[in-house]
């Protein structure tokens, strides 16, 4: 295995471990929505962060499929999509599942922060009712401690910049439906 691949596997192993036991709510949030974020078809999935697909290379693929997404980075790398075929082993969840319904975001000062993912509006009670289901502060703190090593990889930073632009585009679109007060 090339050294760069070993380095990525070690990186994601460390980050996954930090986020393994922590969840957005102090309860099983899947009970609020009947695990909607874990349901889908063979066309749905979670984006893998660049290089994260290496974590699945020697696993039994009976429970997942990895396919190309429609996101290509400037160096030609195509971001992958992990599609579950039913329930996945919890310890093998990709980073996008571990942080759901939050998305990393590069702000105008070029710092990474975390925001509720607007793409989850239709399925996640945390997003459509944050007052009743506030995200646990410990979860947020863990995100901020887990992500810095990832931000040393320029492919990951570029991917987060793309997610940030998608967030901005979605927020702009949704703002068109807000009623302005006079």
What's this entry about, in short?
With 182 residues, the protein is an alpha+beta fold. It has one domain (3-171). The protein is built from six helices and five strands.
What does this protein look like?
The chain has 182 residues and is of the alpha+beta class. It has one domain (3-171). It is 34% helix and 15% strand. The chain contains six helices and five strands. The chain has helices at residues 3-18, 30-33, 95-99, 125-128, 137-146, 154-175; strands at 46-47, 64-72, 78-84, 102-106, 112-116. The protein has a three-stranded antiparallel beta sheet with strand order 1-3-2, with no helix packed on it. A two-stranded antiparallel sheet has the order 4-5. It is globular and about 60 Å long. It starts with a helix and ends in a 7-residue tail after the last helix. The model has no long low-confidence stretch (mean pLDDT 89).
């Amino acid at each position: 295995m090339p050294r760069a691949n070993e380095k990525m596997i070690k990186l994601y192993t460390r980050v996954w471990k930090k986020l393994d036991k922590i969840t957005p709510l102090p309860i099983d949030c899947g009970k609020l929505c009947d695990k909607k974020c874990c349901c889908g078809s063979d066309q749905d999935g979670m984006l893998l962060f660049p290089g994260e697909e290496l974590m699945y290379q020697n696993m039994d693929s009976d429970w997942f499929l990895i396919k190309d997404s429609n996101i290509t980075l400037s160096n030609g790398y195509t971001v992958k999509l992990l599609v579950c075929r039913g329930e996945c082993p919890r310890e093998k969840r990709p980073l996008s599942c571990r942080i759901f319904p939050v998305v990393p975001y590069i702000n105008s000062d070029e710092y990474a922060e975390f925001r509720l993912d607007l793409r989850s509006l239709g399925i996640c009670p945390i997003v459509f009712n944050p007052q009743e289901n506030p995200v646990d502060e410990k979860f947020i703190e863990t995100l901020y401690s887990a992500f810095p090593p990832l931000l040393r990889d320029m492919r990951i930073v570029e991917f987060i910049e793309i997610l940030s632009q998608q967030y901005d585009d979605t927020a702009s679109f949704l703002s068109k439906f807000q009623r302005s007060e006079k």
